Amino acid sequence: MQCVVLGSAAGGGYPQWNCRCSVCSLYWNGDPRVSRRTQSSIAISANGKDWVLLNCSPDIREQIGQLKQLQPNALRGSPIQAVVLTNGDIDHIGGLLSLREGTAFHLYGTKTVLETIEASPVFSVLDRRVVSISAFAIGERFSPLPDLRIEAFKVPGKVPLYLEGDSPNTELEGEFTVGLEVSDAAGKRLHYVPGCAKLTPELRRQLEGSDCLFFDGTLWRDDEMIAEGLGSKTGKRMGHMPLSGAEGSIEAFTRVNVARKFFIHINNTNPVHIKGSPEERATRNAGWDIAHDGMEIVL
Ligand code: MLT
Ligand code: MN
Ligand code: ZN
Questions:
Q1: Cα-Cα-Cα-Cα dihedral of 65, 71, 77, 80, to 10°?
Q2: Predicted structure pTM score
Q3: From the CB of 216, is ligand 1 less than 6 Å away?
Q4: Ligand 3 centre distance from Cα of residue 18 (Å)
Q5: Ligand 1 atom at minimum distance from 238 CA
Q6: Quick one: which of 152, 145, 147 has its CA closest to 82?
Q7: Each residue of 193-218: pLDDT tens digit?
């Protein structure tokens, strides 16, 4: 199995267009310790020719520009055969609007996420005569490409921001947010979990023994956005567990056996963007890597 990271940042990317928080300011000021990151998505292939995208960010056009593997392979044609969604957040579906020029691909999501997309007339640009749309159930295996199987599993999260009421359940387990397990003919297992509110015992069992995990790296600290003066939202309120602290993912994963683990979906305020920062070093010392755009992994 081959895997390419298209984008590694959370919604808004890094730096974010309207932000001068302490971490974005480093980029705007030309600090060599930080690099641009586009919004999160990965691509997977079993044969190096045909690719399936896990989520499709608003940065997809720029990501295709950076990655030879995904560039057009015919007068009109693309190696992108399928897109599989983990939820309906704008940073995960916005790029579908850029894939509208009449080339066939398959779109997969839970029934709930697909209904949300289909409820919006803007997404009717995905012409059903060329784009086939299929729902998967949690725990059901499907094959978006020969030799690759995908199965969705439950991950605590919340509804997309644009569907939130005043006080959404932020640890909802159901069809609004899922994780994806990709396995190949050799039995390798890769897990993609760009958003997660909590590592439940069930989720821990699901991820045990993974050959490669991409996990929610949104915030370093739960109150990071508040500390930066960017409003009142905690990570918990956004459905994201932080990396650090007793309730954080670094601590939670000390008891899970995973061969390679990467943080992805890194918010612009997260100091792990800064090479050599105490937070970046602590993350690496704990056995984690920080995904970056264009990163390639072979399993
Ligand atoms: C999230 O990851 O919490 C969402 O992408 C937030 C958003 O939609 O801006
Ligand atoms: Mn997001
Ligand atoms: Zn910022």
A1: -100
A2: 0.98
A3: no
A4: 8
A5: 3
A6: 145
A7: 999 999 999 999 999 999 999 999 99
